[in-house]
């Protein structure tokens, strides 16, 4: 049976369709759906974008509880976990248009509250800029910092006492060192390459896009998690983490203030990069407040 009729058959019976495979534009995607059977027109849907090379299972602690307050949609991007590989670089526009095609095929109409973790934060910023009228809220969970410039990082390293010539070498290694194509793990590899390219241009692809005037929330993990064997020999790694986090938060505050709809910046000192797994209740509670506020309008 084709996917669309099956989907509507399930909904007509009041059955909650959860994990499944769908085919959109000739590509199979692994998706998760819950809470759509009672959705009213115009109420927001929570759309989740995973971190780099990570599957939708990383949201397990929060999807079920959030589906009690809003319909939820999560998926594996192309080439990640259970979704088909597409041998195309997952640029911001490509990922946004793929997601839009999937949502359209599923007849999941806007408005959307976008939730992005790590690299997913970059991708939801792109989707919001390309489809601003579809978005009614933005939630960034310890995102890859799309507000940071190369000079911001250079200043940070200078303040930690790194010599200028070494800063240049480190920048080259981080941003311009060639990487061989990993066809076996193309999805995660290509996402890393896209992030590298975005950093080379100070995320100009995002900066040229409009930011919709919607509530914006940032979650920041304050727990230092780098094991000693991976610490840099060029600077004090814990000091780097603390200073970088502080400066990231200052830039993110400006992004929150740019919206007249309000927002929040939540620092969780006992949470690491996967904030939604380390402190799911904090994330669930804050998202519920946003959804309730949007539904009250």
Spatial strand sequence of the major β-sheet: 1-2-4-3-5-6-7-8
Number of helices: 11
SSE order, one letter for each helix or strand: HEEEHEHEHEHHHHEHEHH
Uncertain spans: 1-15
Main sheet overview = 8 strands, mixed
How much is the radius of gyration in Å?
20 Å
- Beta strand %: 15-25%
State the end-to-end distance: 39 Å
Secondary-structure-derived class: alpha/beta
| Integer average pLDDT | 93
Helix content: 40-55%
Count all strands and give the number: 8
Give the overall shape, derived from the CA principal axes. globular
Give a quick set of tags describing it.
297 residues, alpha/beta, 42% helix
Question: What would you say this structure looks like, in words?
Answer:
The model is unreliable at about 1-15 (pLDDT under 50). The chain has about 300 residues and is an alpha/beta fold. The N and C termini lie far apart (about 40 Å). It contains 11 helices and 8 strands. It is globular. The protein has an 8-stranded mixed sheet with strand order 1-2-4-3-5-6-7-8, with helices on both faces. Helix 2 runs parallel beside helix 11 (about 280-295) and helix 3 packs across helix 4 (about 120-130).
Secondary structure layout plus pairing:
Blueprint: H1 3-12, E1 20-24, E2 27-34, E3 45-49, H2 60-66, E4 72-75, H3 92-105, E5 112-117, H4 119-130, E6 135-141, H5 150-159, H6 164-175, H7 186-200, H8 204-207, E7 216-221, H9 237-257, E8 263-268, H10 275-278, H11 280-295
Parallel strand pairs: 3-4, 3-5, 5-6, 6-7, 7-8
Antiparallel strand pairs: 1-2, 2-4
Helix pairs in contact: 2-11, 3-4, 5-6
């Amino acid at each position: 049976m084709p996917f669309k009729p099956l989907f509507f058959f399930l909904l007509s019976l009041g059955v909650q369709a959860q994990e499944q495979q769908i085919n959109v534009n000739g590509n199979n995607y692994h998706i998760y759906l819950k809470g759509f059977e009672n959705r009213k027109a115009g109420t927001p849907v929570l759309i989740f974008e995973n971190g780099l090379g990570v599957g939708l299972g990383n949201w397990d602690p929060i999807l079920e509880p959030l589906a009690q307050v809003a319909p939820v949609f999560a998926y594996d991007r192309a080439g990640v976990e259970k979704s088909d590989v597409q041998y195309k670089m997952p640029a911001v526009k490509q990922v946004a248009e793929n997601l839009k095609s999937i949502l359209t095929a599923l007849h999941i109409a806007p408005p959307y509250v976008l939730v992005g973790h790590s690299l997913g934060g970059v991708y939801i910023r792109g989707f919001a800029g390309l489809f601003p009228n579809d978005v009614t809220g933005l939630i960034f969970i310890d995102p890859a910092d799309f507000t940071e410039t190369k000079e911001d990082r250079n200043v940070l390293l200078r303040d930690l006492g790194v010599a200028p010539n070494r800063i240049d070498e480190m920048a080259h290694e981080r941003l311009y060192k060639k990487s061989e194509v990993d066809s076996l793990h193309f999805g995660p590899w290509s996402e890393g390459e896209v992030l590298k390219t975005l950093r080379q241009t100070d995320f100009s692809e995002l900066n040229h896009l409009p930011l919709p005037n919607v509530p914006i929330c940032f979650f920041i993990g304050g727990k230092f998690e780098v094991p000693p064997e991976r610490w840099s020999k060029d600077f004090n790694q814990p000091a780097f983490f603390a200073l970088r986090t502080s400066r990231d938060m200052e830039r993110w505050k400006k992004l929150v203030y740019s919206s007249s709809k309000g927002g929040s910046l939540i620092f969780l000192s006992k949470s690491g990069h996967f904030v939604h797994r380390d402190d799911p209740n904090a994330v669930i509670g804050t998202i519920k407040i946003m959804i309730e506020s949007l539904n009250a309008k």
